[in-house]
């Protein structure tokens, strides 16, 4: 799998892009209505780990709208969510401070490919075989 989710810890993360290049979308916002001109990073917030609306937003941004910048997950982000985040189109995840970065990276390395297509790799695995 060529797409790799970049992981950061919330207690040490500091954005490097200019504020003008970053857009934070609320969970109830429709990404299709956002002006993405000049935006290089979109932050999608997880108010709690069980709220999955940001997964749908990431999928819309990456696959349907063709957004090619960074899609960053923030908030109550657990390592359990990382594989689904990567498959939904997220490119960065800021893990909650009590989550272990090494465990998150090991989890992502454990699944090198998937049979089904997703937001990043549209064709199913058997097509590439």
Sheet with most strands: strand arrangement: 1-5-4-3-2
Number of extended strands: 5
What would the principal axes of the Cα set say about the shape? globular
Count of runs of 4 or more consecutive helical residues: 4
Helical/strand content category: alpha/beta
The fraction of residues in strands falls at 15-25%
- Report helical residue fraction: 25-40%
Give the SSE order as H and E letters: EEEHEHEHH
Q: Biggest sheet: strands, sense, closure?
A: 5 strands, parallel
What brief labels describe this structure?
4 helices, 26% helix, 5-stranded parallel β-sheet, 129 residues, single chain
Summarize the model shown.
The protein has a single domain, classed as TIM Barrel (Alpha-Beta Barrel).
Any chance you could write out the topology, listing elements then pairs?
Blueprint: E1 6-9, E2 22-25, E3 41-46, H1 53-64, E4 70-75, H2 82-88, E5 92-95, H3 101-110, H4 125-128
Parallel strand pairs: 1-5, 2-3, 3-4, 4-5
Can you describe this structure?
The chain has 129 residues and is of the alpha/beta class. The chain has one domain (6-128): TIM Barrel (Alpha-Beta Barrel). Helix content is 26%, strand content 19%. The chain contains 4 helices and 5 strands; from the N terminus they run E-E-E-H-E-H-E-H-H. The protein has helices spanning 53-64, 82-88, 101-110, 125-128; strands at residues 6-9, 22-25, 41-46, 70-75, 92-95. It has a 5-stranded parallel sheet with strand order 1-5-4-3-2, covered by helices on one side. It is globular. The two termini are 13 Å apart. 27% of the residues are buried. The model has no long low-confidence stretch (mean pLDDT 87).
């Amino acid at each position: 799998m060529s797409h790799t989710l970049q992981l950061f810890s919330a207690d040490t993360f500091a954005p490097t892009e200019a504020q003008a290049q970053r857009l934070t979308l609320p969970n109830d916002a429709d990404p299709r209505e956002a002006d993405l001109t000049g935006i290089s990073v979109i932050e999608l917030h997880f108010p709690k780990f069980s709220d999955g609306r940001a997964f749908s937003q990431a999928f819309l941004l990456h696959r349907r709208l063709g957004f090619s910048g960074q899609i960053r997950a923030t908030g109550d982000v657990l390592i359990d969510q990382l594989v689904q985040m990567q498959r939904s189109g997220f490119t960065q995840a800021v893990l909650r401070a009590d989550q272990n970065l090494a465990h998150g990276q090991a989890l992502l390395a454990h699944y090198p490919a998937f049979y089904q297509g997703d937001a990043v790799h549209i064709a199913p695995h058997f097509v590439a075989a």
